[in-house]
Amino acid sequence: MYANRALASGYRAVSDELGGELTDAEEIVTAIGYADGDEDEARWVFACLEALQVFDKEGTRLRLEPLFRRCWSLAGA
Fold first, then answer.
1. How many domains does the chain have?
2. What is the chain's percent helix, strand, coil content, to nearest 5?
3. What is the DSSP code string of 8-32?
4. For 7-17, what is the mean pLDDT?
């Protein structure tokens, strides 16, 4: 994921804006879009992050997967 700037930037935006809090998909897309300014790109990044399973799901709400989030922060990304 580090190799793709859009994914890395999107993940960082979600982590910075929402931390590990439960939220809905639209709020995640908004956080990503706020960081890069492109809603279509934000939706693509969200879909990729979801496919990479970086989110825990509770019903319809999502949060960053805690172990992955911790590893990401330790890597200094």
1. 1
2. 65, 10, 25
3. HHHHHHHHHHHTT--B-HHHHHHHH
4. 92
| Most confident listed range (14-18, 36-40, 70-74) | 14-18
Of 75, 59, 56, 63, give the one whose Cα is nearest residue 2.
75
Task: Give the domain extent around 21.
Answer: 5-75
pLDDT of residue 43: 96
Q: Can you give the pLDDT at residue 1?
A: 59
d(C-alpha 2, C-alpha 25), whole Å: 22
CATH of the domain at 71: 1.10.10.10
Which of 69, 33, 43 has the alpha carbon at shortest distance from 54?
69
DSSP state of 61: E
On whether the CB atoms of residues 6 and 32 are closer than 8 A, the answer is no
- Predicted confidence (pLDDT) at residue 51 exceeds the cutoff of 90: yes
